[in-house]
Structures are given as C-alpha cells and as structure tokens.
Automatic annotation (TrEMBL):
Alphabetic keyword roster: CBS domain
Protein name: CBS-domain-containing membrane protein
Pfam families in UniProt: BON, CBS
Region Disordered, residue ranges: 46-69
Entry-linked InterPro entries: BON_dom (IPR007055), CBS_dom (IPR000644), CBS_dom_sf (IPR046342), Diverse_CBS-Domain (IPR051257)
Species in which this protein is naturally found: Microvirga lotononidis
PROSITE patterns referenced in this protein's UniProt entry, alphabetically: BON (PS50914), CBS (PS51371)
Domain BON residue range list: 228-295
Domain CBS residue range list: 79-135, 166-222
C-alpha cells in the first residue's frame, strides 16, 4: 500500500523546539494535551543504544518484519541468456545488419569453443571507409603519427571481418554479481551492456535495459502479518539515521501504521529524503509531515 502524506504547518516556537528535543509526541491525546513518548522510544529516537554487557548482553534485540527478507538480485536473475553472437570471421556488413535488425547496440565475438574473444559495438562501426567517416589526417600528421597506430586504425576502418573491428579487452560480469555491483561498473565505465561469463565462456549478457526491466517487475514485499507499530518505528528510525545527520532533531511517532514526523532539517532536499524513507518503510499507511526548515541567519 502506498503511504499517503500531507504537510501540517505549525509555529516553530522555543517551546516547540524543546518539546522536539525531549522527544514529545506531536500527536495530541483525546484531551488535547501533548503526551510524552515512552522513554524507550525516546531513547531509540535519539539513537542511544542500551549498554552492552559481556558477549553482547543487554543489546536491543532485532525484530525483523513479518515475511522473509529477499536476497539482493544478481546478474543471473535479469540477464539475457539467449545471446546473439558472431565469430571472428563474420563479415562487418553482416554484423551491421544484426545490430540494426535486432535493435541491439553490441554483439559478443566468441570462438568455436564458446570462449569470449571480444565485442563489436555500434561505436566500432561509426568510423568506416564504406560511408566515408574514417579519420582523415593531413600529411604532416601522418609523418609525426606512430606508424603502428596508423596501421591499426586503417585495419579498423577498412577491415572486412569481426576480428578486424572487435575490441578484445572486454569488461565482463559473472552470474553471481549483484545488480548493485553491475550498475556501479556500467555507470563508471559508461557501458550499455556487459557480457556475462562463466570462467571464460559466454553464458549471457546484461544491459541497462535489463536493469530497467527489473525495476518494472519489482513489487513491494508481501507480509503475512502487518508489522507492529514498534517494528515500523525502529525500521523508519534506522532509515532516517541513514539519510540525515539531523536525526536527533527528528521526532517520529507511529499509531496503527499512521506516522507523524516532526522536527527541524537544514534543507528541502533533506526533508524530501526523510519523506521518501518513510514512503519506503513497509507497513506505513499514511504520513503526517511536520518537518520545518532551520531558519538561516542573515548577516
């Protein structure tokens, strides 16, 4: 269920700030009074842990939410297994037809034994003599340019087979690699796809579109029993501590899955991060936003 939230405005008086610092609940009781939160919840809200005894005694026990926590997705969960590939002898014109016809941006080059030898991408085919896009250098640069590099460039622009245009240095992934690691590599290397290998043999390919499809297929975890208010509070407080250093000034209360968040933050982005953390906390039904921006001194 998607959490609903709305913003409530309230004057930020000195009394109000003191109430937040003391951990007072911002939800009035039936008599209109502001009730103090139990000390245990206030201590958790301020991030104070119970002193540990020998072997971790006295440590606050963890209470996982109902339902099993899913393990991180791996490349094997999303990769394309039926990979279009070519051999070293495949003509360049045929590779171009495959890329255009199947609307893919690259094809792996494999040997007769299934080993990955290289990859040919769209970028490897944009400088070609057939379409007049090969690099043209003035005669004086040809004299100063390394002869070996000049010869290799000629092979790439005029070669007729995959072995002439492929890149042998390929960034690869493994089936056990997490999607987080795969996304880091593709982002840092500016890659659109990575061949997936088992040893040196090609077993699949993972692309940015595969990660987008994983987002589209994602569904929130289904819980056998709704989380308790205490479990929701602990979970949300952990999330808030992870996104903002202002968590000691944030007061959170939970009642039947309805969350009230009050406190002071330094920026609108920080406030938005706290609300997003609440929206991603399982079990929350609605969110009351009482967060205010810290006044900035004017010199």
């Amino acid at each position: 269920m998607t959490a609903r939230h709305h913003r409530l405005t309230e004057p930020l008086t000195p009394h109000r700030l003191l109430s937040l610092a003391l951990g007072q609940s911002s939800m009035p009781d039936d008599g209109g009074r502001i009730a103090l939160m139990p000390w245990r919840l206030r201590r958790e809200a301020f991030g104070r842990s119970t002193p540990r005894g020998p072997h971790g005694q006295g440590r606050r026990p963890q209470h996982p939410l109902s339902g099993a926590v899913s393990s991180p997705l791996t490349v094997a969960d999303v990769m394309t297994r039926d990979v279009v590939s070519v051999s070293t002898a495949t003509p360049v014109s045929e590779i171009a037809n495959v890329l255009a016809g199947k609307r893919i941006s690259a094809v792996p080059v494999i040997g007769a034994d299934g080993r990955l030898l290289g990859i040919v991408s769209e970028g490897d085919l944009i400088r070609r003599a057939e379409i007049g896009t090969e690099r043209r250098r003035p005669w004086w640069r040809k004299v100063l340019t390394d002869v070996e590099a000049e010869a290799a460039d000629y092979v790439r622009t005029h070669g007729r087979k995959a072995q002439h245009v492929m890149r042998p240095q390929v960034v690869t992934a493994t089936e056990a690699m997490t999607l987080a690691d795969a996304a880091d590599i593709m982002e840092k290397r500016r890659l659109k796809r990575m061949p997936v290998v088992r040893g040196s043999h090609l077993v699949g390919i993972v692309s940015r579109s595969d990660l987008v499809k994983a987002v589209a297929r994602h569904q929130a975890a289904v819980f056998a029993d709704p989380p308790t208010d205490d479990a929701i509070l602990r979970d949300l407080m952990d999330r808030v501590k992870a996104v903002t250093p202002s968590h000691p000034l944030i007061n959170i209360s939970v009642h039947r899955g309805n969350v009230d968040i009050a406190g002071v933050v330094d920026s609108a982005a920080e406030r938005e991060a706290i609300l997003v953390a609440a929206e991603n906390t399982p079990g929350i039904r609605s969110i009351q936003d009482r967060l205010v921006l810290r006044p900035r001194s004017v010199s």
